[in-house]
Design brief:
The complex is a heterodimer of chains A (530) and B (353). With 530 residues, chain A is mostly helical. Chain A has three domains: 194 residues, no CATH class; 179 residues, no CATH class; 132 residues, no CATH class. Helices cover 73% and strands 0% of the residues of chain A. In chain A, α3 runs parallel beside α5 and α4 packs antiparallel against α5. The longest helix of chain A has 49 residues. Chain A starts with 5 loop residues before the first helix and ends in a 17-residue tail after the last helix. Chain B has 353 residues and is an alpha/beta fold. Chain B has one domain: Rossmann fold (3-Layer(aba) Sandwich). Helix content of chain B is 46%, strand content 7%. Chain B is built from 15 helices and five strands. Chain B has a five-stranded parallel sheet, with helices on both faces. In chain B, α5 runs parallel beside α11. The chains are: A mainly alpha (530), B alpha/beta (353). At the A-B interface, α23 of A face α1 and α9 of B.
Chain lengths: 530, 353
């Protein structure tokens, strides 16, 4: 059920009405039923997968939590009777027991993710290797279903498990509440990857109908639809045309395609998240923000702190830090410092941890080499950027441009260009072709390519480009206003006619200029596939 | 109180804005493709009809109600639209019977060849013009293709929003009204394009009419019998689309089994005097005015003599109504003939063909 489908809007309306008609104590239970119904409507078989992840994670987390509590009580009682070494041994034994449960659950669930998403990718690579050695035999691909949103709910569940294992909070005792945390329908298909500590604060609470909350939620939904339907789905036609015909659309067109895709992806993904957050907000539930005006970032590191924030922090907290602080890395750090010197040696574990994070980030996005190369491309750019820090400092000591508007603008444009270039791996989904197209920007671009007819031949008319351009200006304007606080709050503070014009205008613009309905093919949100 | 007024005003402006946008963006069918405006015109006719023709272009381009009135005093109307499917005809018949109870309904059987919804554009041209009723809802539900949604019919803006880039002066001119484009449902063409090289029908894998088509033919038969309306099945005399003998047999059998009159005008071409060099404007697909009047002459006689349809000339209300229609009819003949002379086509230079 696409977010932009009538079915979803109808489903949402029913859920919303029922939610506020029901007594407060029944609201979260109803949301669980609604979430499972939502998932069931996508494909009944998906329910098996999400149920397995839910049950296994719930049981493991509860077992770990119970063991921690029992141990704490026992330890307090017997602490004084034990020597320091005995206390240490008891703790270590307890930790080892918990670790067994933790690892079993973690590997089991990541195993499901790996098998469903990466089996055919693995087979494809094995076949390539077999072929490279001149053997004829190949392994057959397997027909596996990939449950909708499996990457998102698996990561969300594993984040919860890790937090319980690390003692950040006690496990949720009610299995149905935990099931709702895993399956909450607005964020099931494309995130954000919520943390239990954040989402649980409002997910299980009773919520009374509050006009301001509901209207703010609706406004957010409307904004999401504007981005998705007016901008993303309209420019999508040109993006698809450029990608589909690399022989025709190379050189400057490849550059234009990368720029169009940057706009499409932003409008699509942030639009989807706006709808997610808005839907939750109408029911009084607060979902973590996933974007903070990423295209205003001045460098790649900052960009990744502002783009798909919940994914970035997940990888940082649950992969980068644990790997960096692991015993293996400590030993490696020691060895590398001893052999390569302090300056170079200390970089080895950091680089290795970053490499693993970016490799994982890449493969999380999709089971293909283009995503892996995209992830490693990010790694390379970030590492080069870090290595160039001394040069930047030297440059700014000589050239006093830092902090000026022009320099900031340069940094923003540079970041957008680098990120758009890397995203070409996502566009073409073919590593050699991506390099070829990227190269063509420098070798085949010509002024003759700058003609309107060529852009019209991509399937959009001049008025379509005008709509996209105006839509983009609106996005930029809203982002600029947003820097000093919530746009919705600012509009809410205005006089009634201004509020009406703003929201009714947005509604009508989406209704009229949106690329939806007959004549437009319904387009998935790009991040649904992850 | 002030707050309540503000809320009411806000709702009013919001609804008015949506209504205006809908009116502006919905297709007007006043030039180029005119067929989309046909169904709606029926509601402007205040008279009670003795005969209502229901079907596709084989009726609305081949029978002239003006001719039937002027020569036989038959008060008739054609409720037809492009590629009108049998379930759409059924629901139009249902609506017609509820509204005015005619003596006779004439149904053209060509649409029996379609067993499933076909094209969204044709659906819209037939259904959009209907007034909201259970018949319209039934017609929508029966007609929708996979890509369609019921809500798009309820709120046409959801369907026609993309027309913002196609808006022209017609959309402003016809914002609140429509010109008449038919003459009691008849779509007139005076030009001639002889029928040459009419292809034979290609062999079909299956000549059996579909079960869905039969279901609606049964429903139409029952509807007419239950309401004491004489149903006449006809096949228009046009040469293409090809009418297979296997189809003919099924209709003959059906008519006999249900005690319905069936007239295949293809077999009556000579009696009617149809000349395919003169009486068609598109090479045999449809009759032109000359051909339609020949068919109307023959059919009018059948309706008057065999089905005893009364001559209502002399009823003041009808006379005044038909005078207006006849005047428009004659003016249109004049206009098309003038255009033919001046431009070689019935369309004037101002018309979007």
């Amino acid at each position: 059920m696409l977010f932009t489908s009538y079915e979803f809007l109808g489903f949402l309306l029913v859920v919303f009405i029922m939610y506020y008609l029901l007594p407060g104590r029944a609201q979260w239970s109803f949301l669980l039923i609604a979430s499972y119904a939502f998932y069931f409507m996508a494909d009944p078989r998906y329910l098996i997968f999400i149920a397995i992840t839910t049950v296994s994670t719930y049981l493991a987390a509860k077992a770990i939590s119970d063991k921690k509590q029992s141990f704490d009580i026992w330890f307090k009682e017997h602490k004084k009777e034990m020597e320091k070494e005995e206390r240490k041994a008891a703790k270590a034994k307890e930790h080892a027991n918990e670790k067994k449960i933790f690892l079993c659950c973690l590997l089991f669930n990541l195993g499901i993710l790996a098998v469903t998403k990466y089996t055919n990718f693995t087979i494809s690579n094995i076949n390539s290797i077999i072929g490279a050695f001149g053997n004829q035999g190949t392994l057959s691909f397997v027909d596996l279903i990939i449950p909708m949103g499996i990457s998102f709910y698996t990561f969300q569940s594993m984040g919860y498990l890790i937090d319980v294992y690390n003692g950040k909070f006690e496990a949720q005792k009610n299995p149905f509440k935990f099931a709702l945390f895993v399956s909450f329908f607005p964020q099931l298909v494309q995130g954000p990857i919520s943390r239990y500590a954040d989402l649980s604060q409002t997910l299980f609470e009773e919520h009374r109908f509050d006009w301001k909350t509901v209207s703010f939620g609706l406004e957010r939904i409307m904004w999401g639809f504007f981005k998705k339907l007016v901008i993303a789905d309209r420019i999508l036609v040109a993006v698809q045309a450029i990608i589909a015909s690399p022989d025709t659309y190379n050189g400057f067109y490849a550059f234009a395609g990368a720029m169009f895709y940057a706009l499409e992806l932003y409008a699509d993904f942030t639009g989807g998240i706006d709808i997610t957050i808005g839907v939750a907000e109408t029911m009084g539930i607060k979902v973590t923000e996933n974007f903070r005006r990423p295209y205003f970032s001045k460098n790649i590191k900052e960009y990744w702190n502002r783009w798909h924030i919940t994914m970035g922090t997940w990888f940082t907290d649950y992969i980068f830090y644990p790997i960096s602080a692991s015993q293996f890395m400590m030993k490696l750090s020691k060895k590398s410092r001893a052999r390569l010197g302090n300056n170079l040696g200390k970089r080895v574990p950091v680089y290795l941890s970053s490499f693993i994070v970016w490799f994982t980030t890449g493969i999380w996005h999709g089971a293909s080499w283009n995503f892996i190369v995209w992830g490693l491309g990010n790694f390379v750019v970030i590492m080069i950027s870090q290595e160039l820090e001394p040069f930047y400092r030297w440059f700014h000591s000589k050239v006093k441009v830092d902090g000026t508007f022009g320099w900031k603008l340069f940094q923003i444009i540079r970041t957008v260009l680098i990120m758009s270039s890397l995203r070409m791996f996502d566009c073409y989904r073919d590593v050699p072709l991506t390099f070829k197209m990227f190269g063509s920007i420098f070798t085949k671009s010509s002024l003759s390519q700058l003609n309107a007819d060529a852009f019209i031949s991509m399937g959009l008319e001049s008025y379509d480009y005008a709509v996209v351009f105006i839509g983009m200006l609106v996005l930029v304007a809203v982002s600029l206003v947003q820097r000093s606080g919530s746009v919705r709050e600012k509009i809410a503070a205005k006089a009634a006619p201004v509020r009406f014009i703003a929201w009714y205008g947005l509604f009508m613009a989406t209704l009229i200029f949106g690329a939806y309905g007959i004549g437009y093919s319904a387009s998935q949100f790009i991040y649904n596939q992850f | 109180m002030k707050k309540l007024l503000a809320i009411i005003l806000t709702i009013f402006i919001a609804v008015a804005g949506l209504a205006f946008a809908t009116k502006l963006l919905e297709p007007k069918y006043m030039s180029g493709v005119l067929e989309g405006a046909m169904i709606e015109e029926y509601y402007d006719d205040p008279t009670d009809h003795n005969v209502v023709f229901i079907g596709d272009c084989e009726l609305y381009e081949n029978v002239s109600p003006v001719y039937l009135w002027e020569n036989f005093g038959i008060n008739s109307y054609i409720r037809g639209s492009a590629q009108q499917l049998i379930w759409q005809s059924y629901y139009l018949a249902e609506e017609t019977i509820k509204k005015e109870h005619p003596d006779i309904i004439v149904f053209n059987v060509l649409s029996m060849k379609y067993n499933e919804p076909q094209k969204e554009a044709y659906n819209r041209m037939t259904i959009d013009g209907m007034k909201w009723s259970s018949s319209k809802i039934g017609s929508i539900n029966a007609s929708m293709t996979e890509e369609e949604h019921f809500i798009d019919y309820v709120f046409p803006l959801l369907r026609y929003h993309r027309r913002w880039s196609d808006l022209d002066s017609d959309d402003l001119t016809y914002l609140g009204h429509r010109d008449k484009i038919t003459f009691n449902g008849y779509y007139m063409r005076v030009d001639v394009k002889p029928a040459e090289n009419i292809p034979e029908g290609k062999p079909l894998a299956d000549y059996q009419f579909g079960s869905n088509a039969y279901t609606y033919l049964d429903k139409l038969t029952k509807l007419c019998k239950d309401n004491d309306v004489q149903l006449i099945l006809v096949k228009a005399p046009t040469l293409y689309p090809y009418w297979y003998s296997q189809w003919e047999e099924q209709i003959v059998d059906y008519a006999a089994a249900n005690d319905l009159p069936y007239i295949n005008f293809l077999d009556l071409q000579d009696e009617m005097g149809i000349d395919w060099n003169e009486d068609t404007y598109d090479g045999g697909l449809h009759l032109n005015l000359a051909g339609a009047e020949k068919m109307s002459q023959y059919f009018g006689k059948v309706l008057s003599e065999e089905f005893k349809v009364p001559d209502r000339r002399g009823e003041a209300e009808l006379d005044s109504y038909w005078k207006l229609v006849s005047d428009r009819y004659n003016a249109e003949i004049e206009r098309q003939n003038t255009n033919l002379k001046l431009y070689g086509t019935v369309h004037g230079p101002e018309e979007n063909q």
